[in-house]
Write a structure and sequence with these properties.
Chain lengths: 185, 318
């Protein structure tokens, strides 16, 4: 009798531990996703300044600048899905990359202190976004492992927890970077 | 590089002056040890031969005289050791990079050792010396020899006994890191307890303010355990390229290294058993291979900045 109670008690405690750990991992995924959002927002905030500085020095990049401003407006408008936002972000990234390469044609701009600052802040935020994406993928992997492996899989089945897909690089970014393409964009 | 400064006339004359000093110290020390040794031998021999009193007195005289000789040379050998570090090691440093300097009596203070969070135990006995500092490109760095120990006490039937255990002995290297960060990230070599700790903190309960961070590089994860209080920031610091560089730096070091990233600096602990930058007393200074090991350790430390690519300053920190 006592043994039965002890066993039931133990199973109950193990159940609570597994349940809590699953919930913790699920929340970690949401949390990691919002970290990417924060980093993206930080980068979006840089764009107006960047555009302002570049505008003063260049006359030929107007179309690129207009495109960047439009993309940013769309991306920050709020009523778009995560997938759309990711696509916009990828486009924005490649436009800015192109712009950074074209800066070589404008020695004055390249030497401008504001621009140098913005450029390094931009690189910094790029790397922070990359770090946030890696953190997100790590927590997704952790969560997926937990819900697919025994004994977590039993609870996950009962609670209807679904596996989450990791973030992959957009097809466009996976290509090797070619300087020629950047100049033509 | 090495031959260039070692063939330098000024350097050779410094060595020649120090060599005279060294010979004097070495002969006095030898004399002192001989007096002490023969005094003890004489005492024992007398006791065995059944004439204890006179032989012990003579033996004691020898030991005391030997002791006085050694005592009187202490100050001089300290000055000699200091001059060796300043002039000989100093020139070797300057030949590598003009910015490099050595301060024999400074080091990394214990507060900094503790706040680096490289090790989890606080030291009870701490010794540090030979602070080398300088700049490689844009990156300022310094390193020093550190020996940190903690004690345990146990009750035996003869009273309390204090045991000393080593936390760390070797060189701690500190460099200004090329990216801005606010949190703490620690990379430690992986042992069985650490591996269990990671599993426990990920699956059951996490103690303290730092969580285990599982990075994508499987080789890196097999060798190291990473902790930090910010998952994103840890990955911002430990980029895939940085993990590769740390991994290859670790392979070049004889024992597994530990790293921490805190207060905008990076700390690396290299466990080493040898005491570096010490002046030889019983070996000649004129041996061409004299500085080989010291120079190779200095060069190794100097090259870390390039090895870890700390001079790339494109992340808004200059």
């Amino acid at each position: 009798m006592i043994i039965a109670i002890v066993i039931i008690g133990l199973l109950f405690i193990i159940g609570i531990v597994i349940y809590n750990s699953l919930i913790g991992k699920k929340n970690q995924v949401t949390n990691a996703f919002s970290a990417i959002d924060v980093m993206l927002k930080k980068r979006f905030d840089l764009i107006p300044n960047l555009v302002e500085v570049v505008k003063q020095y260049t006359t030929y990049e107007q179309s690129t600048l207009t495109k960047i401003v439009e993309l940013r407006a769309k991306a920050t408008s709020g009523n778009i899905s995560d997938t759309e936002r990711a696509t916009l972000d990828a486009q924005l990234s490649s436009s800015i990359k192109g712009l950074m390469v074209n800066v070589e044609n404008y020695p004055d701009l390249k030497a401008n202190e504001n621009f140098i600052n913005l450029q390094s802040t931009w690189t910094e935020s790029e790397e922070q976004i990359a770090a946030a994406r890696r953190a997100y993928n790590a927590s997704v992997t952790d969560y997926n492992n937990a819900i697919m492996m025994f004994p977590g899989s039993i609870f996950a089945g009962m609670l209807n927890f679904q596996p989450v897909t990791v973030l992959a690089t957009a097809e466009e970014e996976r290509k090797n970077i070619s300087a020629k393409d950047l100049f033509n964009s | 590089m090495q031959a260039e400064f070692e063939n330098n006339a000024a350097f050779q004359s410094v060595l020649a002056t120090l060599e005279v000093e060294r010979k004097k110290i070495a002969s006095t020390k030898t004399k002192g040890y001989i007096f002490i040794g023969s005094g003890i031998a004489f005492g024992i021999l007398g006791a065995v031969l059944g004439i204890p009193m006179p032989s012990i007195l003579i033996g004691l005289g020898g030991v005391i005289y030997g002791g006085i000789l050694l005592y009187r040379i202490t100050e001089q050998s300290r000055a000699y050791a200091g001059a060796f570090k300043r002039d000989v090691i100093g020139s070797a440093l300057k030949s590598l990079d003009q910015s490099l300097t050595i301060e024999p009596y400074s080091g990394i203070v214990d507060d900094e050792f503790v706040s680096s969070q490289l090790f989890t135990t606080n030291p009870d006995r701490y010794h540090t010396e030979d602070l080398v500092s300088g700049q490689a490109g844009k990156t300022r760095f310094y390193f020093a020899e550190v020996h940190a120990e903690y004690k345990t006490e146990e009750q035996t039937k003869d009273g309390r006994r204090v045991n000393w255990h080593e936390i760390f002995k070797g060189i701690i290297f500190v460099a200004d890191f090329n990216k801005n960060f606010n949190g703490v990230t620690v990379v430690r070599p992986k042992g069985i307890t650490a591996a269990f700790g990671v599993w426990f903190s990920k699956n059951i309960f996490s103690f303290g303010d730092k969580d285990a961070i599982l990075l994508e590089n499987p080789e890196f994860n097999k060798t190291f355990v990473t902790y930090g209080n910010d998952q994103v920031e840890a990955r911002y610091i430990l980029t895939p390229a940085m993990m590769d560089r740390i991994f290859s730096l670790n392979r070049k070091s004889a024992s597994a290294i530990s790293l921490s990233f805190i207060n905008s600096r990076m700390y690396i602990a290299f466990p080493l058993q040898r005491n570096y930058f010490e002046a030889p007393v019983f070996k000649t200074l004129l041996n061409p291979a004299l500085l080989n090991e010291d120079i190779s350790v200095i060069r190794f430390m100097y090259d870390i900045v390039n090895e870890l690519d700390l001079n790339t300053r494109i992340w808004g920190k200059n």
